[in-house]
Amino acid sequence: MAMFEGLAEKLQNTLKKLRGKGKVTEADVAEAMREVRMALLAADVNLKVVKDFVARVKERAIGQDVLESLTPGQQVVKVVHDELIQLMGGTTSKLNMSSKPPTVVMLVGLQGAGKTTTVAKLGLYLRKQGRRPLLVACDVYRPAAVKQLQVLGNQLDLPVFSMGTGVSPVDIARGATEYAVAQGRDVILLDTAGRLHINEELMDELKSIKSTVKPHEIMLVVDAMTGQDAVNVADSFHKQLGLDGVVLTKLDGDARGGAALSVKAVTGCPIKFAGMGEKPDALEPFHPDRLASRILGMGDVLSLIEKAQSTFDAKMAKEMEQKLRKSDFNFEDFLFQVQQMQKMGPLDQLVGMLPGMGKMKALKDVQFDEKEIKHVEAIILSMTPEERQNPQILKDSRKRRIAKGSGTSVQQVNNLIKTYEQTRKMFKQFADMRGKGPGKGPGGKGKGMFKLPFMK
Amino acid sequence: MTGFFNRLKEGLTRTRQNLVDKVEALVTGRTKIDDELYDELEEALISADVGAETSIELVERLRRKVKEQKISDPSLLQGLLQEEIAAILGGEAIPVNLGNQPTVILIVGVNGVGKTTTIAKLAHRWKQEGRKVLLAAGDTFRAAAIDQLEIWGQRVGVEVIRHQEGADPSAVAFDAVQAAKSRESDVLIIDTAGRLHNKSHLMNELSKINRVLDRAMPGAPHETLLVLDATTGQNALSQARIFGEAVGLTGLVLTKLDGTAKGGVILAIHSELQTPVKFIGIGEKMDDLRDFDPGEFAKALFGKEE
């Protein structure tokens, strides 16, 4: 992963010397394409897919006029980015819904890809859209797989249909359809057992489920960490069953998810959903543009913004911006920030989405301690309103009182005050940066890097 | 021994077909060793998940050898490559040390790699060898994970120490060590919840289990094994590195080798990290877990038997 960090940056360095030239030449592009090739391979994109891709990008990049505002590097990055998005297809995260309910959705895949979890997540997702899903336990092989689905259904208050492990999955699927009709459930989600694509017996079982209940949607669940073999797996499942879509799981890890490209290229099926965490609501519609940025190491800015938007109070955010500009940023605001951050979810996940964060050496070893945030909150809450607004008045005796009140030490209080000062400065830098253009992010070289107390 | 070898060979068939047969196809019919051939070799390695860096390095070494030994016959490349691969894998097998009473083994890994199944296979194997095995259901997070281990326990015929779902896994681990001591078990295998290595709070939970184990029995865990899915690509390196930093791995278990044409990730891991592969999973049967012997592996990979 480390070597993959910032392909965008690498490309820009490779092509920096071209600045001022009018056109990108073939030789320039060839050099850049070597970087692209290595980067895609390190992201586990299948070799064949990489080769086709590089050839296409090369063709497009050669002879491109270098726009005035862009460096040639950025220009090539843009071409690569565009092509990646194109390769991954449009943004369709709609399931094929039958006009005559119930709609039958079947999830298939290798062992350990995350089918059972995805079935539960999908159930919740569909219910939020006003559907009435039924989860069906067709995995009769893995020990306790049925129980797992039942527990998940119970937690989410979704009905689960099962017939134990002594019945064939084909019969279970058939029984589930009848049950759904009787109970008025309009979507059936079939959880099938994980299997190798080369296991004929088990693949035949899926074929008979298919011919028996005629699913409207067959989705392949693929682990985002899958390597070069993703192509064979997807191709084999597709040829034998005819896939309609793909779910990419475990994207909350640090894998680049190059498997997505391979799967899309070989099956032509859209990637419809992305699994982003262990919580049942961590299933998101798949965004090709975001994965393209991630593969390029450009940071998942859009996801971050969206996440922030859904949790941040827009008006408060506006006020905050004003404050930042004037840099009268006090502990009240700091507390607000900390609380907002908590709402936004695990911090390391957020940081991963920030562009350029990977570049910061200082951040690579940083770990976030969610517990420390609680301490920060406690310290600020132990301050009087006056102290929060005028941190300058915090002298020794006040600090001692605050430490006592929050169950921390004076040292921790001091640390927080220091952090607050640094954060304030950093925000001021951010505010000053506006209008000056990108390129000089705070701590870009690891120098003067701010350190919040919950970063170890 | 022959039966064992054949079984191993069988499990590796797909890996062999992919890598070795491809290499063979590449070199046969060629009359000279040129850049094109090297490029194709490199690609064959990359396709087997060996990883771009390791593949380039391997081919670089081949080039050097060819130059040194003034080789011009392409058909000799195959043997050279086997040598290089064996060199990367290292010579000696490093078995799990079962010298303690009880020997405490912690099993860790990301979600869905086959930790629980691996534990069942290990338990089966050590029980067959006449050892007294105890399991601990340390995955208290995932729905029905405890039941899954319990069912395996019944099938294998070993006892399982369990708490409620949602309990502190460290507490399970602590109790299990006490139980293992009082029941005079030889081996205690502790299951843990699958976790992605970039979630620091979950990695901290593992470090805590480690600390608690050491308190329950100084020196424990005696082995910490990271389970890796052989279908995984280059992220396996990241997993091995970060789990290693968090809990200090003593070995790796590579699962699902029968299903993938790859497994080349073993090479990448061996060449970049020092953690040895101790077991490989080559099938769904209870006894389809094998000691990883680098020499045997390289030989089986190339389908040659002495």
Automatic annotation (TrEMBL), chain B:
UniProt superkingdom: Bacteria
Membrane topology, record value: Peripheral membrane protein
Keyword Nucleotide-binding listed? The answer is: yes
Q: SMART domains from the entry?
A: AAA, SRP54, SRP54_N
Spell out the reaction equation it catalyses.
GTP + H2O = GDP + phosphate + H(+)
User: Where is the protein found, in the record's own terms?
Assistant: Cell membrane; Cytoplasm
Q: Where does GTP bind?
A: 109-116, 191-195, 255-258
Where does the record place the SRP54-type proteins GTP-binding domain? 276-289
- Which keywords are on file for this protein? Cell membrane, Cytoplasm, GTP-binding, Hydrolase, Membrane, Nucleotide-binding, Receptor
Listed Pfam families: SRP54 (PF00448), SRP54_N (PF02881)
Subcellular location, principal: membrane
Q: List the SUPFAM superfamilies hit by this protein, alphabetically.
A: Domain of the SRP/SRP receptor G-proteins (SSF47364), P-loop containing nucleoside triphosphate hydrolases (SSF52540)
PROSITE patterns (alphabetical): SRP54
EC number(s) for this protein?
3.6.5.4
Record family assignment: Belongs to the GTP-binding SRP family. FtsY subfamily.
Name the HAMAP family for this protein. Answer: FtsY (MF_00920)
Quaternary organization: Part of the signal recognition particle protein translocation system, which is composed of SRP and FtsY.
What is the role of the protein in this entry? Involved in targeting and insertion of nascent membrane proteins into the cytoplasmic membrane. Acts as a receptor for the complex formed by the signal recognition particle (SRP) and the ribosome-nascent chain (RNC).
- Name of the protein: Signal recognition particle receptor FtsY
Q: Which organism is it from?
A: Heliobacterium chlorum
Its taxonomic placement starts with: Bacteria, Bacillati, Bacillota, Clostridia, Eubacteriales
